[in-house]
Amino acid sequence: MSTGPTHAMSGLTAWATVTALTPDNALGQLSTKGWLVGAVLAAGAALLPDLDHPESTVSSTFGPVSQAGSKLINTISHGVYRLTRTKRDSNRDGGHRGLTHTLFFAVLATVVTTAIIQTSRSWALPVLMFFFCGLAVRGIMHKWCPRNDALWITGTALLLTYACLKWTDQTDANAAACGLAVGIGCVAHYLGDAITEQGCPILWPVPIAWKTWYPVAPPKVFRMRTGGRVEMAFVGPLLTVVAVWMSLIALRNTGALPMLRDVPLTWWGQG
Ligand SMILES: [Zn+2]
């Protein structure tokens, strides 16, 4: 895995890029408030797949509650891995970097999030916002925050959720856009994992080279060490620059930032 801050930033970058580069479809035509809700969801969802690892920092986000959830996810993931692996797949436990690290899971998370928000906007959106805010805060602050400081994280997530929903009109959030934001965040996580040593079984259960859990990864020279110099000095800052740039374009498309109306932010048309 990449480090928490890189994962969270990659979720935001992916959301900003998709919304900035598709101004003509529904995702590119969100309101400013809807876009911001999506940005929070995507940044948090970029940490979601690692809930399959009970020892991971993100699993301690909400203390014993998320740790218990993490153990359950790990057990399910382990079961699915052992049941569906072929002889060619590595003989590993499969609890971590299993089911939650596949496109199948990203689609599932998209559909479930959309369905939950469609069922009830009044309670579901605040609950989901709180959950993903917590993951995002935990991801960004995983270094200097004591490992068991779940109360602190919970408090910050509650405050952030309150602030977001106080400012965003709850009825404004588009359920499908929220679902897609979560899916986009998950996919950003997979890409971040794929460029580290072990690769990521994104395409399960499609068999590649007789492996259903084929670890998708670029050639070795393009891979980096988690928390290594390449990630800290290059990938992290680059993601941040792209996130800011794409967010400016996307926010301008939503009608916010009128002062940037004439600033050439793009070279491909609407700039
Ligand atoms: Zn991961």
From TrEMBL:
TM annotation in the entry: 98-117, 123-141, 232-251
GO-annotated molecular function: hydrolase activity
Signal peptide span: none
Keyword terms: Hydrolase, Membrane, Transmembrane, Transmembrane helix
Record bears the keyword Metal-binding: no
Pfam families, alphabetized: YdjM
Protein name, UniProt field: LexA-binding, inner membrane-associated putative hydrolase
Organism annotation: Actinokineospora auranticolor
